[in-house]
Amino acid sequence: MLRVHSSGRMWQSCILQADRRCLSPKRNPGMKTKPVLPGGTVELKHYKAKDPDNGTEEPCRDVVLSVPPSPAKIFNLDRISLLAGYDKDLSSGSCNLSSGNSYYSCASQITLGVNTSIHGAEKHVPVYQRRSVAGQSISQSQPVVRHSSLPTARRPIRMEATSSGSIPCNAKRKIHHQVAEDVNIFFDHLVAINSPSKDDDSLLHPGNLTSTSDETSRLEVDGRRHDRAEKNRTKGLYFSDGKCSVDYILVYRKSSPQTEKREVFERNIRAEGLHMEKESSVSNSDIIFVKLHAPWEVLGRYAELMNVRMPFRMEKQISRFRGWLPRKPMKLDKETLPDLEENDCYTAPFSQQRIHHFIIHNKDTFFNNATRSRIVHHILQRVKYEEGKNKIGLNRLITNGSYEAAFPLHEGSYRSKNSIRTHGAENHRHLLYECWAWWGVWYKYQPLDIVRRYFGEKIGLYFAWLGWYTGMLFPAAFTGLFVFLYGVFTMDHCQVSKEVCEATHIIMCPLCDKYCPFMRLSDSCVYAKVTHLFDNGATVFFAVFMAVWATVFLEFWKRRRAVIAYDWDLIDWEEEEEEVRPQFEAKYSKKERMNPISGKPEPYQAFADKCSRLVVSASGIFFMICVVIAAVFGIVIYRVVTVSTFAAFKWALIRNNSQVATTGTAVCINFCIIMLLNVLYEKVALLLTNLEQPRTESEWENSFTLKMFLFQFVNLNSSTFYIAFFLGRFTGRPGAYLRLLNRWRLEECHPSGCLIDLCMQMGIIMVLKQTWNNFMELGYPIIQNWWTRRRLQQEHGTENKASILQWEKDYNLQPMNPYGLFEEYLEMILQFGFTTIFVAAFPLAPLLALLNNIIEIRLDAYKFVTQWRRPLASRAKDIGIWYGILEGIGVLSVITNAFVVAVTSDFIPRLVYAYKYGPCAGQGQAGEKCMVGYVNASLSVFLVADFENRSDLVSDGHEVYGSPIRYCRYRDYRAPPHAQEPYAYTLQFWHVLAARLAFIIVFEHLVFCVKNLISYLIPDLPKDLRDRMRREKYLIQEMMYEAELERVQKERKERKKNGKSYHNEWP
Predict the structure, then answer these.
(1) Domain identity same for 333 and 452
(2) What percent of the chain clears pLDDT 70, i.e. is strictly above it?
(3) Rounded to whole angstroms, how far apart are CA atoms 665 and 668?
């Protein structure tokens, strides 16, 4: 009689009676099994029986039946004997199965337990006789000493028969590892070799899961197994036997001259235990695909070396009251798509000696595909391809052309003819497409656990950060929209706008030397109302809010990152010692020193050489910043020259709005220059980074990231800084204008202020840049992949389309950006800067960013799932250097918003007028009634006769106003022309200047204090996370204690058995 522990459920095996029914299936959770079947082969059947708990009839799954042995082999499965340690001749025993004795008598006379320790040493368990009770199945068990904190049951899996003549590849190799474990684990392994993935098995295609009826024979099961193996083979995800999954793909050309290096490399790969199979391309016979598979022994050995954390205990979940309200619409529908998130488990570093402590439902799926590919990549990076201390690693072979590509496979097609809600997902790629990359789920939360499981922690962390940033944009966007709507609703009640619209008698001075006419102030009525939308009483509040928001965003992201790092086993993860870059090694191979960490000699770069290279690199950075300033200077000249051209345009619409036309075209030209310079900056940054000769890849990435961010940040924001803080500030006054190169008069602000120019600059740049980036991220790969498919169809026709396997389909996809996630992060960081740095001037920036990011998440998801090869599942515990850049932008945003409110907007001049010069002066009020007369007080008077000769005024205004104009007004605080000191600054100017400086100082100190207070009050780790971490640490200690206790008890028993006794033994 046998019992099999199948994923946590203990089913007592059944002795066949005449009616072929199970007598009494009984569950014994937590009982350690010692399965024995003297002289019998193994057969798996399913029968119905009465459940003793409720009396109902239900199928008896996972039952192992004893069958009389054949003369040729006794309990033999493809020459693999499971009778280790059994030294009794069963055929001559007192119980003969073929002599007509009942199965009960046989079971009562002969029972045998086989148990092995976690260290692999076989252990003989004495035979015990137990009484058999009629009508009940015989129970054979021994009490197990197990700590209460450790699991005693596993989730059930469905078992299938394995043909004795067809043992999968990873069962044939080193089978002694299987004998050295409990037999229940051995059967789990044999049955699970060809089982589908148990990760989210309820979401996978139901055709992958088989259920055997009462009348199904073993031949039918074997036939379905063979059909499934054939189906797996034709999918292109397995070896030619349809059983060994493809964990990694290498691609090379037969015409490549690096044949010898490749042969040595592949021979060493096989020596490491990896399985290998080659197959030529269907579309190009010169291309060879090398398929790699890691068997269980290799995975277990390297998982222990790499400290891969695996689940060992289910975390206790506290049930919460769901309430009677409907489900949140943004949540993923777990009833239709169940088990989207991984179960909460405590994890510990994997150990083969403590393997029985881990939750292993299926050894084929215990390590998910991302972990398997990462382990294989880890092996490939350490395999030699040539004699020499540094002639190792796959990266060097790709660099020298030995291999063209290396990548893990996608898990099949992302499309299916059947609906996922009715038939389930075909694979995890299909699942990700349906619940993440498809546009119909744009409002749903991201399934981050599945993203992490499929693409790895580094990519999963990027999408987690992007989702968190997008979620945090909601309060910022709603607040900015509220500020904008506040300006809309108060537009008609604004006293300043009313005075501008009613000022038909105020004549403004021309805005340029030539062609610009005199104009009434009332002509700026529309601009005054539009300016009020962005420059109103709520602007200061919004500036403070966004400065605090940036701090809250970063602080709460640290908490969110800590939770993700814990859930994804990244808390204690430390990046391995990186390899030296081949370029660094080739440059400095003659000088070596001892690595203080590894203790091995490595190439060494002298300090003087490093400093000289850094100086040259810094000079290059300074030169490129000067190029950016030169581009801004060119834009300034364009604005100065074209404002006169548009003022003389033949179309009245453009002529009357010459300044708006100048600003709009200047912004578009500036955008084109930005995009062209970005291409140049990438090449220069690459050149300077390689010139520095960084030692490792991470140093190279950090250096390149800093240069690219600095270049693009300056390139994107330089013109915005000019408009915000310099436009109209240093132009001089009528009659004494400051001129550029002593020729062109500098551009002035509109009579309603310069804020409208800043808003146009930010709005156009944000919309155009984000639209262009989205097109380049998605449109370019789609066009490239379409062209590749079209070329293949023209060369080989459509008849071979169905025969193209998965590895060739993936090879025809676009590889991931060589800089990894750099471009994705850079785009979002620059957007974050636009959203925070000048947000006081453009409150709608967070709303535009939110709308873009909702699209961006799905665009990036669609790109990763459908258009790119599957990237290597890399690990990372945070977003790296980008977090420091975000903190720097947050500090800069406080300073810039303080200057925008104080200098660019009219908030401070209005405040000074209301409290000092207006009708409410000295009353402590600043309402709209206190702003009466503000427009007249903010404009100075100029005598037209004092204009410079070089101004070349075309008209004196008599044809419009009926008589020549004697006086005109301009924005400034200066004395009238007939004063004792004509055109000198008035006292109001100095009051406004002092108020602006005081506001900047108070604003910065107040906001920085609030930011620091928030950073101090918000802990980096949530309290519940600290408790969970303590709990996990305690359980790991208990597991290690129990393993040590088992080892000591085993040694003590062996000593007693050998007749040795020791005093003061522990325990």
Answers:
(1) no
(2) 70
(3) 5
pLDDT on residue 825: 92
Res. 482: pLDDT tops 70: yes
Give the span between the Cα atoms of 665 and 642, in whole angstroms. Answer: 9
- Pick from 878, 905, 932: which residue ends a domain? 905
Mutual angle of helices 822-837 and 697-725, in 10-degree steps: 30
Q: Which residues pair with 504 in a beta bridge?
A: none
18-41 pLDDT, tens digit each: 333 333 333 343 433 434 434 333
Model pLDDT, residue 760 = 82
**pLDDT (tens digit, 9 = 90+) per residue, 807-835?**
888 898 888 887 888 888 998 999 999 88
Two structure tokens written together for 660: 């708006």
In DSSP terms, 970 is beta-bridged to 940
Q: Please check whether residues 523 and 391 belong to one and the same domain.
A: no
Residues 172 and 234 in one domain: no
CB atoms under 10 Å from CB of 260, counted, come to 11
Task: Confirm whether 1013 is domain-assigned.
Answer: no
Query: Residue 272 and residue 491: Cα distance in Å, rounded?
Result: 75
Same structural domain for residues 309 and 349? yes
pLDDT bucket at 213, cuts 50 / 70 / 90: very low
Domain for residue 918, yes or no? no
Do 585 and 503 lie in a common domain? Answer: yes
User: Binning pLDDT at 50, 70 and 90, where does residue 956 land?
Assistant: low
Count of domains for the chain: 4
Cβ atoms < 10 Å from Cβ of 984:
11
The stretch 754-761 carries a mean pLDDT of 82
Neighbour tally for 491: CB within 10 Å: 16
Show the domain range for 266. 224-317+325-435
Q: Residue 539: CA atoms inside 13 Å, Cβ hemisphere, count?
A: 25
Question: What H or E segment, with its residue span, contains residue 303?
Answer: helix 296-305
| Bridge partners for 45 per DSSP | 63
Is residue 292 domain-resident? yes
- Residue pair 583/700 in contact (Cβ under 8 Å)? The answer is no
- Whether residue 844 is contained in a domain is answered as yes
> Is the confidence at residue 44, as pLDDT, over 60?
no
Backbone φ, ψ for residue 447 (5° rounding): -80, 75
Tell whether 838 and 806 lie within a shared domain: yes
CB atoms within 10 A of CB 136: 13
Alpha carbon distances (Å) from 6 to 27, 64, 158, 361, 922:
11, 11, 8, 8, 86
| H or E element, residue 60 | strand 57-67
pLDDT the model gives residue 472: 92
| 528, 501 Cβ separation under 8 angstroms | yes
Residues 184 and 228 in one domain: no
The single residue listed with the structure tokens 């036309």 is 661
Cα–Cα dist 602/597, whole Å: 11
**Residue environment code for 884-916, b if the CB has 16+ CB neighbours within 10 A, otherwise e:** ebbeebbebbbbbbbbbbbbbbbbbbbbbbbbe
SS3 state of residue 446: coil
> pLDDT value at position 773?
79
Pick the closest to residue 62 from 191, 159, 182 (CA basis).
159
- Residue 319, judged by CB atoms within 10 A of its CB (0-12, 13-18, 19+), counts as exposed
Distances (CA, A) of 922 to 232, 884, 919, 933, 996: 86, 47, 9, 16, 20
Q: Tens of pLDDT along 503-524?
A: 888 888 887 777 777 888 888 8
| Single residue among 368, 403, 435 that ends a domain in this structure | 435
Indicate whether 498 and 410 sit together in one domain.
no
Angle between helices 822-837 and 845-862 (to 10 degrees): 170
The per-residue DSSP string of 676-699 comes to HHHHHHHHHHHHHHHHH--SSHHH
Tokens of 323: 């309430």
The full 3-state SS of 879-923, as one line of letters, equals CCHHHHHHHHHHHHHHHHHHHHHHHHCCHHHHHHHHHHHCCCCCC
Calpha distance 619→616 (Å, rounded): 5
DSSP 776: I
The residue-averaged pLDDT of 859-884 equals: 89
